[in-house]
Specification:
Number of domains: 2
Largest sheet: none
CATH topology of the largest domain: MetI-like fold
Strand content: under 5%
CATH superfamily of the largest domain: MetI-like
CATH architecture of the largest domain: Orthogonal Bundle
Number of strands: 0
Helix content: over 70%
């Protein structure tokens, strides 16, 4: 029994905070149960889906993928550059490193919705603000992950390159990059999967893509069209995840075999 005594106080604090938070959030299981019939009724209005609208959703679905792809690619490239600056084995300037990492932390704390609204105010509605919002969001996450991966590389190849008089670019190209490629690819593909979902969400606020079709259908109470959009989104996300997983296994598997 004594082995569990150290967990009693943390468990009690956790339970108190959980209960208090639930009360403040007005968590009401009875209201949820009472609302189930209304949910079933709403769900019933969505069937059958408006199959005739599927051809019209191909374009917005592709636009969603394009927004996520360009935003991820741009964010990953900038994240690698920033990661080099934020890694202590690549940058000896501690003040600069700490400043960059602080900026990355601040960016991660900023919701993507705020970022996209900022870019909408700058460039207007459309896919471009969505691309920029996803790129900025990717930098906050990938910048830290890339910096951590670079700091964990084997220092011996780096030291050998420096000893023979290699330039910084040569050290990065031949000593750092080969070691971090698997991590860069895995994290970038993971972020791409996140950005697919985020691009759908950002479409709701005018950033283009299939999210705009979804919110428009719901606002017009066209539930069958909304279900067609939801099914398209599910197919889109599933295909992108399968493709990302296949690429990850193929490329990273080859790198490990080497």
């Amino acid at each position: 029994m004594s082995r569990y005594q150290k967990y009693i106080l943390p468990a009690g604090i956790f339970g108190f905070l959980l209960l208090g938070s639930a009360v403040m959030c007005r968590v009401d299981p009875a209201a949820l149960i009472a609302g189930i019939p209304r949910g079933i009724d709403l769900f019933g209005h969505m069937f059958p889906p408006a199959w005739k609208t599927f051809p019209e959703l191909v374009g917005p679905a592709l636009e969603t993928v394009e927004i996520a792809f360009v935003g991820t690619a741009l964010g990953a490239f900038l994240s690698f550059v920033i990661g080099l600056v934020a890694a202590h084995n690549m940058n000896s300037n501690q003040i600069l490193r700490n400043t960059v990492r602080t900026i990355l932390s601040a960016e991660r704390a900023l919701p993507d919705l705020i970022v996209v609204l900022f870019f909408v105010a700058i460039v207007g509605l459309g896919p471009f603000p969505g691309v920029m919002a996803l790129a900025v969001g990717s930098i906050g996450m990938l910048g830290k992950l890339f910096a951590d991966a670079i700091e964990e590389v084997d220092p011996k190849p780096v030291e050998s390159m420096v000893a023979i008089g290699a330039t910084k670019a040569q050290v990065i190209r031949y000593a750092v990059l080969p070691q971090v490629i698997p991590s860069l690819i895995a994290n970038t593909l993971y972020r791409f999967e996140i950005n697919i979902r985020m691009s759908i969400f950002l479409g709701v606020v005018g950033a283009g893509g299939i999210g705009y079709n979804l919110v428009t259908s719901l606002r017009l109470l066209e539930y069958q069209e909304a279900m067609a959009v939801i099914l398209t989104i599910m197919i889109l996300v599933t295909l992108c995840e399968k493709l990302s997983e296949r690429i990850r296994r193929t490329i990273i598997g080859q790198e490990l075999l080497r």
